[in-house]
Amino acid sequence: MIHLTVPVSRGDVEALAVGDIVEMSGTIHTLRDEAHREALAYAARNEQLPFDIRDGVVFHCGPIMRKKGEDWELMAAGPTTSTRMNDLEPDFIRTFGPRIIIGKGGMSRPTVEAMSTNGCVYLATTGGAAVLAARGIRSVSGVHWLGLGMPEAVWVLEASHFGPLTVAIDAHGNSLFEDVDKNVRATLTTLKKRMGI
Description:
Number of strands: 9
Helix content: 25-40%
CATH class: Alpha Beta
Structural class: alpha/beta
CATH architecture: Alpha-Beta Barrel
Largest sheet: 5 strands, mixed, barrel
Number of helices: 6
Distance between the termini: 44 Å
Order of helices and strands: EHEHEEEHEHEHEEH
């Protein structure tokens, strides 16, 4: 297993290949579709974000939080289906320069190309294991845009050996999801020929 420490360099992510297994320690920011839109609106107004994700990690996640006194406690951190961000992610990557995006389900070819151009990778985590994923988060160090609602806010999480995560899209334009899709299509074509369809 490859261990990464955030912030992550372009060289770090370019050394990764589809299929590698990764864990990480350091700061992770959760951003779903509403937070992506808000961030891009800031950029359109030439305003600086209240957080910095350059060379950082974006987690497509709507976590479940519990308030304990003045602090927040993470209860569950399940990944959001990343295709929800397909229309936003290429501009987001180009504008804000994250090195790692974590989610489930893969992303579109324009996003894969933005990752390749800008030195970014997509790490897949297991859906349905939100409580298990939360074990890799040692604390919540902040929250931004809570007015968007708990799942859409930007949560600042401090991770320790968060993972395992699979490199599903690397920084060289390779996508595990596209490979699987090609293999399935080829298998179906072969089966149809054999069945005379």
